[in-house]
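Students often ask why we bother predicting the structure of a whole assembly rather than each chain alone. The short answer is interfaces. A chain on its own may look different once its partners are present, and contacts between molecules only exist in the joint model. In this exercise we take three input lines together and write out one structure for the complete complex. Read the inputs first and try to guess which parts will touch.
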Amino acid sequence: MKVGLFIPCYINQLYPQVGIATLELLEKLGVEVVYPMGQTCCGQPLGNSGYEDDSKGICQLFVENFKEFDYIVGPSGSCVYHVKKHFDILEQTDDVKRVRKNTYELCQFIYEVLGKTDLGASFPHKVGIHKSCHGLRGLRLGSCSERMDAHYSTEENLLKEVKGLELKTLNRVDECCGFGGTFSVFEEAISVKMGKDRIQDHLDSDVEVVTGADHSCLMHLEGLINRNKQPLKVMHIAEILNSSI
Amino acid sequence: MSRESILNAVKKNKPDGLPLPEINLDFFDEDINLVETFVENLKFVGGRAVQLDNEALLDEEIKKLYPNASKIVSTTKLSQLGTIAISKEIDPHTLEDINLAIIKGELAVAENGAIWVTENDFIVRALPFITNDLILVISKNDIYLHMHQVFEAISKRDRTFGVFISGPSKTADIEQCLVVGAHGAISLTVFIV
Amino acid sequence: MAHADEAAIFNKDEEKVDWHDKALWFVRQKRDKSAHKVKGWEELRNYASAIKANVLSNLDTYLLQFEENAQKNGVTVHWAANAEEHNKIVHGILQKHNAKKIVKSKSMLTEECHLNPYLEKHDIEVIDTDLGERIVQLAQEPPSHIVLPAIHKKKEEVDVLFQEHLGTKPCDGDPQYLTAEARKHLRSKFLKADAAITGVNFAVADTGGFVVCTNEGNADMGAHLAKVHIACMGMEKLIPQEKHLGIFLRLLARSATGQPITTYSSYFNKPEPDKEMHIVIVDNGRTEQLSREDFRASLHCIRCGACMNTCPIYRRSGGHSYKATIPGPIGSILSPGIDLKKHSSLPFASTLCGSCSDVCPVKINIHEQLYKWRQVIVKEVPQPIVKKNVLKMAGNVLANSKIYGFVGKSSRFMLKHTPRFMVYSKLNAWGKARDLPEVKGDNFDEWYKKRKKNE
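Now the answer. The structure tokens for the assembled complex follow.
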């Protein structure tokens, strides 16, 4: 099995440690991972802003970069969702179809494809999960509070096996953090308010570390936490799953 | 006047035919105690349930609950407490100061505490709404599990006006505070006989 | 003003935002509890969605069937292509009966058609009889929510409003007292009304009947006392058969308020002898929306308001910030179909979190339609030049690995070395309340290359 590592643009530039943790974790799990140089972005920032047509070149480049892999795995639910959901703008060649089908969010890949939950990690802290919307309601990484299905959560399945980790339950288990890509800038007031409310929920729930499978949401929350000097740390779930003491 | 143009626009713009689903009621089937569930849901929607073993005791029980009611309309033979007789011909405005209406309900719905009543039961359409307090009498054999069964049960009838009543009139329009007694009856008592 | 500007104003009073958010979240929680009690909830949603899709694909047939059956029942059926024709039809019926005092129960359609001002201009008194609607009518405001019209008003505000208009005593906003006073006030209006106007929740093609749902009993108080009952319905309110009411009545109130069913679900089939019953079927842009493949499912809507209660943006910006008859997520996909330019900011008033689509009892893919409207809007409505250029440039840069490598590095450099006062200037909406990420060392590309070299 050959896996192409998909590191979203903002993680590449701003959060290389998340990319590193993802790569190390996959290698630790015995997966052959290649990082295709020359990858850029999935096109989501354009699509979500209404410029989907101008993103075709980006999407096509993505397919070119990843078409030879059995699986494409990335540490960002919303970027993965974009590939799976919105690459319908491309001509649906076999390559495009295969790439869309085989692109996985990291936790989903570990849980569903590798069939593993205990990754040998250890992280003795009180952790709250931010269930990012595109991973949750797009990729269905877990049950959604609006729906009446039985409870499940891919992230929880993995975190529960981490030694010493204490998972905290929030009051609003899956409310949006208000990032929303360009929404965070064009609807600044509400975006900030939503983020503040999410953070307060974690604080009220005795959380020390906020984690999640989508670092764009975490970037937004971290920006607020740092500005307001709040006693919370933000880490991508790959960093926790890759940690050992 | 625009009838034809609207229908033509619909014809032009509608999608290709999509099938009407067959509803499989097995999804919604539950083995539960219908009377208990009904009573529980009736309470939840603000109504009061009184279970009577003997329908002859009905009037006695009503008098206990509404000792001061003097202007009473009963449209059911089960109660003799009516003080005002009504007919289809009366002006409904004259019912404005009725204290209590006693009506036989046709059937009840366990899942939502509602009771189906029709014009045949209350004679004057305004009656169950304009009365200050409302009593509905149902037979415990007429309680159905859910709305699907109910619509099946009432499918053959003379359709004029009918209503599902679930609890007393209420509103939460002021800061989400539930207040019972908006425009319709301010209380609902259901006798299950 | 764009939604973002309205929302920013609303957010100046954070305490009020919290209050508004909590009030609506409370309704969402009640909805969850109620839906959890229903065995087969998701199947109910599937059926409701499929039935509505079938309705749209046979709408002309069902409309004709409904008309025929309603006429057989002695109901007069009218057709209105737009708001103006709707208002004229209603006014015409009222004129025929010399009706001057009208009571109206909740109808978003008559809001959409601006019926009240039209009738008032013709010296007709229209009293909204739903308590929430009466409150906003007295305050001369539009409803801020389709099910909870006065959800934005604090009880103390209602207190003052009632003192002024109904002569009530000051009561510290006691809802019990205020509701009792409203009951008295509106009772006198019901008793004097010449005609009653109601909305329609469901119109049943195979019986020609229609269902009106209320909790207060105001639709019935109006319709059964007045000589004339006019029911106004959007043409999408049809359902094929009576048994389908079983599906929709199970979903509607639970989704709206968490009640298992509304207090009154009144099923009108025939007028009483000596009385008249009219139905006005209204298009007003609906056939056009029907033509739009990507957006026609918005016509499935049964107006429960669940998408508003769940929407984290609606809860924190208030219904008035949408400047549309129907606010919130569903309004944001309906309104652009009516006036694209006027409502062009609404599809962007969302993080595309998808909660609206999952809560929707008829499974409208609301967030996907928001995404699709965005694609339409940037093509058809002039966009801010900076936003447009930046995104188009991004499209070119990100489609080219080499340029991207260069730009990525240089923006990291900028982030790292630009003085704080420039990064956090007023022009930078990100930095107003949030810190930017700290740039440390190599990006992932560089780290990976070095690691390869050292292997």
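Check your guess against this: Chain A touches chain C through 74 residues (CB under 8 Å).
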